[in-house]
Write a structure and sequence with these properties.
It holds the Pfam family Phage_Mu_F. InterPro entries: Phage_head_morphogenesis_dom. This is Phage head morphogenesis domain-containing protein. The chain is α+β, with helices and mostly antiparallel strands. The chain has 2 domains: 215 residues, no CATH class; 120 residues, no CATH class. Helices cover 39% and strands 19% of the residues. Strands 6-7-11-10-9-8 form a 6-stranded mixed sheet. Strands 4-3-5 form a 3-stranded antiparallel sheet. The chain is globular, with a radius of gyration of 23 Å. The protein starts with a helix and ends with a strand.
Length: 352
Amino acid sequence: MVTTASALDQPFDEAIAYLREKASVPTRSWRDVWDAAHSKMFMVAGANSVALVDDFKAAIAKALEQGTTLEDFQKEFDQIVKRNGWSYKGERGWRTRTIFETNLRTAQAAGRYAQLTEPDTLEAFPGWQYNHSGAIHPRQEHKDWNGRVLAATDPAWKVMFPPNGFGCGCFVTPVSMPALRRMGKRGFDRAPDLDQLGTDQPRGVDPSFAYNPGEAWLRQTMPGPKAVTADEANVVHFVAASLRGKWPEGSWTVVGVHGDDVAGALGVEAGTELRLLADVIRTNAAEEISADAYATIPRRLARKAKVEDRGDGSFQISKTIDGDEWRASVRVERDGNRTRVLLDKLTREAGR
């Protein structure tokens, strides 16, 4: 029989595996890797070589496997910085604590999710409870979520499975149906409203934390376009929100910037934005173009691609990307001195 103790206190092999399976990715900014991409990529903001990132990854892995402390990590951090000649931004204490705690907590969260979703455990504990860390200076939303029990299958966990921000120490515990009744609950609680007016960033969740580490890690991603940067993730959120009707007609987001060659063929200045309208997303929903494709493919079509003039300001841009033939129907509109390029349709022909 699965018990609460056995569900939570297994050796944490899953957390270690989560970290070990990540690819080391050099970056220039913390915005280079975003949301669920963190579950596939290990990065330290501004660490710009694989060797440097590998050293940090090994240090965090040691903390998971051997239980080394923040103080131990800080000593190793100094050695890594010196060995690699890295000049970092920010105060040492803040940087080391952020790197150490964020990576440990996300690894532990991923490992915990893997444990909780084992079939036997999920059958015994169909509910999960959100627990606030008890921090002295809490985020009000996290405090409000404390004690809330949602079904393990509730879609809200795709976004609000902690940690939900830098320094967030919140955690999830499993709840059986008998335990739910002992709490005086007749059923699972309703998920909190995570929508915020004027932004696609979920309420109570810091930027780049709007994902479930364990779910993203365990999901076997198929080959194809995947949004990983902040700009790309913003497009993904915009597409999803537009399909829900959150963004009204006329709302738009930038999905690319035209390079010299494509801009010249379109008759616009290099650097002109390629815009995607919310109503275009809804109109073309039947095409089944993923949000990730909208976030990544137009950016690549906007540079070094074939352009065909269809007349009356309409063009088709095409390019083979990762073996597939992608085409974008775009429209150039001019109003006095103002010019804008709009994406009307994105299509894909699978490679053979």
